[in-house]
């Protein structure tokens, strides 16, 4: 997606440890007009899959999922990372291993909001190691619903998540794939 790549080149900052900071439009401040174009693009890519629900994980996925859902006219469900009092007791759980923190944490979705007839589109901001996606897939599998596709805003093609997820036969579409980040320069695939 050219508009997105242009934005990444304009305002993205490469941190020393292979992290791309895009706080000014995606992870802190939100560029709603750009998110709108991202939502349209996900709709164009997945409109023929009879999507009935969009699934993501809190926090950064929610804005993208909500804007995308307006085009599909379906609800968004986001997996929660903390076991709050407000969350139903009866949940589907997924495990997410965080490489950065070297811990495994649980994400949860109430059983009320996933039905075995649901056709799910997952959306997320980044695909790096793919662990968040694996956790969401666990939830989808436990609920016995159908994973139709995954829409990612920025894939870090030099990390192993993309291959890991595609090798499972999952239909992943990333709007920008970064091949390499070297000396502060971003090179797209
Ligand atoms: P992964 O296996 O799910 O791909 O993620 P990983 O543990 O490698 O990364 C941990 C968190 O950092 C994830 O967010 C992921 O989206 C995010 N991330 C990974 N690489 C980058 C990057 O280069 N730039 C930015 N801005 N983020 C990156 P999270 O903690 O699960 O979620 P959230 O609360 O931010 O939504
Ligand atoms: Na995320
Ligand atoms: Na994130």
TrEMBL record:
EC code: 2.4.2.22
Superkingdom of source: Bacteria
UniProt keyword terms in alphabetical order: Cytoplasm, Glycosyltransferase, Purine salvage, Transferase
Keyword Cytoplasm: yes
GO CC field: cytoplasm
UniProt-listed PANTHER family: HYPOXANTHINE/GUANINE PHOSPHORIBOSYLTRANSFERASE, XANTHINE PHOSPHORIBOSYLTRANSFERASE
Name the record gives this protein: Xanthine phosphoribosyltransferase
Domain Phosphoribosyltransferase: 26-156
Subunit details: Homodimer.
Catalysed transformations (reactions): XMP + diphosphate = xanthine + 5-phospho-alpha-D-ribose 1-diphosphate
